[in-house]
Prior knowledge:
By secondary structure, this protein is of the alpha+beta class. It has helices at residues 8-26, 47-59, 86-92, 104-116, 138-155, 179-195, 248-256, 259-264, 274-277, 289-302, 307-324, 342-353, 357-365, 382-412, 438-468, 482-489, 498-504, 510-525, 567-572, 577-584, 589-592, and strands at 64-67, 70-73, 126-130, 196-197, 205-206, 209-216, 222-230, 327-331, 334-338, 366-371, 374-379, 420-426, 491-492, 495-496, 540-541, 550-555, 558-563.
Amino acid sequence: MRRGGGTRKERLLRAKLKKKMQDEENAPNGAASVTFEDILQMSDLSEQSLLENLRRRYEHELIYTYVGSILIAINPYKQLDSAYSERKMTEYYGKAMGMLPPHVFALADHAYTQLIQGGALDPANQSIIISGESGSGKTETTKIIMQYLARATSYRKTPQDAEEPLDATSGTVSRALGKLEERVLESNPLLESFGNAKTLRNDNSSRFGKFIEIQFDHHGKIVGAQILNFLLEKTRIVSQSLGERNYHIFYQLLAGADNTLRERLQLQTPYDYEYLRKSECFNIHSCDDAKEFATTKHCMTTIGITEERQGLVFELLAAVLHLGNLQFGMENDTCVAVGDDSANGIKLVASLLKVSEDALMQALLTRQLYVGGKVIVQQQNSEQVRDKRDALAKSIYSSLFLWLVSELNRTISRTQDKWGFIGVLDIYGFEKFEWNTFEQLCINYANEKLQRHFNQHMLEVEQNDYAKEGIDWKHIDFEDNQECLDLIESKVNGKPGIFISLDDNWRLKGEEANKKFVSNLHSCFGRVSSAHSSSKNKWYVHPKVDADLHFGIRHYAGEVIYDASGFNDKNNETLNDDMKELIRQSKSDWLRG
Ligand SMILES: Nc1ncnc2c1ncn2[C@@H]1O[C@H](COP(=O)(O)OP(=O)(O)OP(=O)(O)O)[C@@H](O)[C@H]1O
Ligand SMILES: [Mg+2]
């Protein structure tokens, strides 16, 4: 996260002074007296001493530390009582950077001050980039920044001084906020219900990326917000790793729906749904799904989604769950629905999607091919039918998510009144699991890009500035990850990198495509020869075992081995024409739209 405030020379001087004062203030506190608020104040810049400084501060609940223009935040994994109180906000309001101990409020305040510094002249738009591994606290920090900005703008009129802790996790806001600020803040729990899930690393992991642009008018007041979302993890809708969950909203609906809704949608428990039970994880410790459902509904109402529309949303969620329970098998070379309750399941899904049962079955069991101007109807085998079923479920849910974001934007974005903005980028963090697939590659690619941005703008620019200003500054060598990015996104010495190679194989089908893709990668970037273990490309890993479907990348945050099974299908994912036709036949204007 970036901060600024005067020239770097001034900042260094201010930091030195600050450090002296801090030492005096903290003297009785033992270890805190020898920690550095800004790592640039340290003379020993070895990794060990940097980590030691962070550790000591962390032990004293000092979770924030500056590194020049960057703010490091360490996840405290507990509520820090007064760290985010309203009194703390007033303390930081309008103070120049570096006057108070490092804090995310200081960073948010600095962004705000920078934005409005020119008065009603052109705004100096700001962006705060938050980066870190999954579970490191990016989303919580985003919410804290939004809370602060909502407050800070209200101070311009009515300063408050109450010791009222703000609950960043639930998005609770005090009554003093205006309707608009409230709506902006309430977009968070709503997005999280539909876009977050429990993973092995984080009980509330964001499975989509977002850039929230908080919009201000020329008085410096919040007038709205615009959400730009990136890549929702679709696979999760139909399968999850053991110990993980599907999106929170499914469990919320099953736990919190009242009897009328439960009956209308024929809802059961999470154990009764294929899409939820296979991962064997149903509850999140200290999370009450029924209560969260009430919060989700409240947020929907706040942003203006009517009860009737909410009903339609829940119908689609139920359709996804019931769809996953449709089972298929082969009978005399023909694929048919199987299972005791299959007839009822088909009827129910068809009614929730507002299509006829025949149309649903035809879309699932057959495929229409257009050959030489003629339509050929091809019967599908049970595996193909299951894939079509899953593709439909993924498409319904991801369209619902997109609709929700556009609905949020429709009600909270005020582009016409916008004078300037502060953007906050919160994407999914770097991931390294036992089993890593296409989603991890996309997520880690996004993080690799962000890392490059940090390298370029923080280290290179910073070092150049110090050199220009004649500050005695030891040059730091850092590992430039541009070559790793080239391997993923472009060509290396004329050889197609990972994404290009994947696209090149799109015509091949199934695992054949994935094997060809991996073998291409191995031959271009893998082992020099069978006698050597080193790779031709330093960022590429040629695994010793299961090398026909596995390859690895040495990312900035660690080496990750990817399983390429399913890569080609996921890369080409488009809803086939039969499914599009099915949706077109729906009697629901909303679904068709
Ligand atoms: N400042 C904080 N104060 C208290 N708890 C925190 C704070 N930051 C994070 N946490 C705790 O850590 C958990 C994980 O944080 P968060 O969801 O923000 O991680 P993330 O970086 O967004 O991860 P992902 O990339 O998986 O989305 C939170 O649910 C919360 O319990
Ligand atoms: Mg997150």
